[in-house]
Design brief:
There is one protein chain. The chain has a 22-stranded antiparallel β-barrel. It has a single domain, classed as Beta Barrel (Maltoporin, Chain A), CATH 2.40.170.20. The chain is mainly beta and 745 residues long. The chain is globular. It contains five helices and 46 strands. Helix content is 6%, strand content 56%.
Length: 745
């Protein structure tokens, strides 16, 4: 019944021009009389270009487009971006991006990393949650391997976050939002020119909201929001040849976690008799009331400092240096069994310590040379990541029989690379491009374990491979990435391109395997690689006063040695680690379009089809997953969006209404066949009214509603029916509504 309703809503939304957002989304001009599509500037090739001139599949949103669509997190971004999936509800500070089926989490050991990397002001960032998605000039989603210009691990793509930089004219804004679930949110920014060559921009935000899932025993609410961020940016331009941007960004998140709901119990599981009554009680309460035993939480602090300096040495030669430092500390707890029993509880760090405490340095030097028809970019890159204090956690399992304290784990990960890419204009309309990057990675550290119930802090249990508490490990990995492309500017408004790319993601190590065996084949994680082919069309057109944009991309990828989070039997325990799937094929199609049938109305639409399945894959437990689809990759996604300026007198201001609908197909979340192993398809309908320049002032008022049909949908799943004997899941945000008041100058 609900699916029927939502299908009807989708059809109605389409008919009314209501629904989601295009990537290279061109916003209408501020006035209702706008009759042309806006030019969207992107930096997909590390320089500013019109998105329609770039032979890369890119989805981009301007500052205004982000605000009016309510894009504040990665999960918001996925609704408006073809082929993008985001899993981040369990850790808002580390949203995991997947593009065209490639991405996901990084290695649980060392090396590796996510296959889609977020960049903030050209710096690869370990944090990608709500603390960065404010006061942005743009967000750009680059699809397909981007390893030549954007690093070793971008096998799936990259997400570029470009902050608003200081200018030399005073400006700023302040806005506040209130809504249901007791939401209170505020954002503000101001640009302060200090001299003719020096300018400062300060920005900050906080967002608080009650959760929509409640623990019936403690009264604690889950899926809440509680975060704030501060950012300072300093621009120094002593002349027209030197520009130096320095920024510091701080993010603080203190939230209660997702509130996992118990959905199923395996009757053959080891604790089925204990869990079955709790499952019945959970089903009677509904999905918004739960009972947990662990103190679930998501606490993190992230400090990012960077400097981006450009030197225009000559009219043809530009040097750029990008330096950054990141410190991230996190404490997290979760209830893996979603019950009041102590079966699989992660209780967070030992008091006074952090689960994760690490720091990262990056340095990149880049040169751009323009010689007539030839443009050449080259550079070197270095990064170093290390823990600054031990990694610690407390875990209870098997009804409290085991307390595991990993009280001394240190990880070091360094990477260096050299790269070059050129474009050559063969004719005035035909351009070739090629690029190559080679990366060297080194990683290592040590791990220790303490099991109090065994009676010896050094773990003399025969099941473990070493008699003392600590074991050192090290490894290395290297590989190349490349691209070859050809693009044809068939007309001033039509670009046709073809490109083939090869991506590389670093290998790594599973330190936990050392607890049992130093020679296990599961100890080493092989590098993953992907080779793709992509054909694309970008076309702007007009007819009878109607302006439109049509962008298409078709892709085919061969994916090898795929790094996957998996389980294997280590020392009698089902241990989570990273394994390599042998081969997979990914193919698909993307469409992004915008049309202005009349001056006040802009309609945008997106569609993507992704067929991502394993060709060969025997998992860590020996199960053949060949032919199985990728996890968290909907085969089909689409969105529709319509913005209409209302015909009101100019003395009142500019009034517009917007409706968007985003739908995505079923998603496989389990690695095998089991109950609730698939997230059913769902669609979300959002609406918005914007009243800007109220009575000729700089004040704006917005009314918003998200998920207005109150669709109940799952976003994550602990699909361990065939291992630990249960299934738990987190649900997405329910209907929300509120009002925002904004003053800008």
């Amino acid at each position: 019944m609900r699916q029927t309703i939502m299908t009807g809503v989708s059809a109605l939304a389409f008919a009314l021009a209501a629904s989601s957002a295009l990537a290279q989304t061109a916003e209408p001009q501020a006035e209702p009389q706008a009759t042309t599509l806006d030019e969207v500037v992107v930096t997909a090739r590390r320089t500013e270009e019109n998105i329609q001139d770039v032979p890369v599949a890119v989805t981009a949103f301007s500052q205004e487009g982000l605000r009016q669509r309510g894009i504040e997190t990665g999960t918001d971004l996925q609704n408006f971006t073809p082929s993008l999936s985001v899993v981040g509800n369990t850790n808002r500070n580390q949203e995991n991006y997947t593009i065209r089926g490639i991405g996901g989490i990084g290695s649980l050991g060392t090396g590796g990393g996510p296959g889609v990397v977020a960049y903030f002001a050209e710096v690869p960032s370990t944090a990608s949650g709500p603390g960065l998605l404010f006061d942005l000039q743009s967000i750009q989603v680059l699809k397909g391997p981007q390893g030549t210009l954007f690093g070793r691990n971008t096998t799936g793509g990259a997400v570029l976050l470009d902050p608003v930089k200081p200018g030399f004219e005073p400006d700023g804004y302040i806005e506040g939002t209130v809504g249901n679930l007791d939401r209170r949110s505020a954002r503000a920014a101001v640009t302060l020119p200090l001299s003719d060559s020096l300018s400062l921009r300060l920005a900050g935000q906080f967002d608080q909201r009650e959760g929509f899932v409640t623990d019936v025993n403690t009264g604690k609410d889950y899926n809440d929001r509680n975060n704030f961020s501060l950012r300072g940016g300093l621009l120094f331009q002593p002349n027209d040849r030197i520009s130096s941007y320095t920024a510091v960004n701080y993010v603080d998140i203190d939230e209660n976690g997702p509130g996992t709901v118990l959905l199923a119990v395996n009757p053959a599981g080891p604790v089925a008799a204990l869990l079955n009554p709790l499952l019945a009680a959970q089903q009677a309460r509904g999905n918004d009331r739960i009972a947990l035993s662990a103190d679930t939480k998501n606490v993190s602090q992230t400090l990012l400092a960077l400097n981006n300096t450009t030197f225009q040495l000559t009219d043809n030669i530009t040097l750029k240096n990008v330096l950054s430092y990141t410190r991230t500390r996190a404490d997290f707890g979760s209830d893996g069994d979603a019950s009041i029993l102590v079966i699989n509880d992660l209780n967070g760090a030992i008091p006074g310590r952090w689960n994760v405490d690490n720091e990262t340095w990056t340095e990149e030097l880049q040169a751009r040379i323009e010689l007539g028809r030839l443009t050449f970019q080259t550079g070197v890159f270095y990064s170093d990541t290390s823990t600054v204090t031990p990694l610690t956690f407390v875990q209870r399992a098997n009804l409290g029989a085991i307390s595991l304290v990993q009280d001394s784990a240190h990880v070091n990960d360094s990477s260096k690379a050299v790269y070059g890419q050129f474009t050559y204009a063969i004719t005035d309309t035909l351009t070739a491009n090629a690029g190559y990057r080679y990366t060297w990675d080194e990683f290592g550290g040590d791990i220790s374990i303490y099991i109090p119930q065994l009676g010896n802090a050094c773990g003399t249990n025969p099941g473990f491979a070493f008699p003392n508490c600590s074991r050192a490990f090290e490894g290395e990995s290297d590989g190349g990435t490349w691209q070859l492309g050809l693009d044809w500017q068939a007309t001033p408004d039509t670009l046709i391109y073809g490109v083939s790319r090869h991506g590389y993601k670093s290998g790594g190590i599973n330190p936990s395997v050392l607890l049992v065996s130093a020679t296990s084949p599961l100890f080493n994680i092989r590098p993953e690689t992907v080779t793709d082919g992509e054909l694309g069309l970008k076309h702007d057109w007009s007819a009878s006063g109607i302006n439109a944009r049509t962008n298409l991309a078709v892709f085919y990828m061969k994916y090898e040695d795929i790094q996957r989070s998996d389980y294997a039997l280590i020392g009698g325990f089902n241990t989570q680690l990273i394994t390599n799937a042998a081969e997979a094929t990914v193919k698909g199609f993307e469409f992004e379009g915008v049309i202005q049938p009349i001056a006040p109305l802009t309609i945008t639409a997106t569609y993507s089809y992704n067929d991502a399945t394993y060709d060969k894959y025997i998992d860590g437990l020996g199960v053949d997953r060949s032919g199985f689809p990728f996890q968290y990759v909907p085969e089909t996604k689409y969105s529709l969006d319509a913005k209409l300026f209302l015909p009101v007198p100019s003395t009142i201001g500019d009034v517009s209404v917007r409706a968007s609908y985003a739908w995505q197909d079923d998603q496989q979340v389990a690695s095998d066949l089991q109950p609730f192993g698939v997230i059913p398809a769902y669609g979300l309908l959002n609406v918005r009214l914007d009243w800007e320049h109220i009575a000729g002032s700089d004040v704006a008022l917005s009314l918003y509603g998200t998920n207005v049909t109150d669709e109940e949908y799952r976003v994550t799943s602990n699909a361990t029916y065939n291992t630990t004997g249960l299934v738990g899941a987190a649900f997405g945000d329910p209907r929300q509504y509120g009002v925002t008041l904004r003053y800008s100058w």
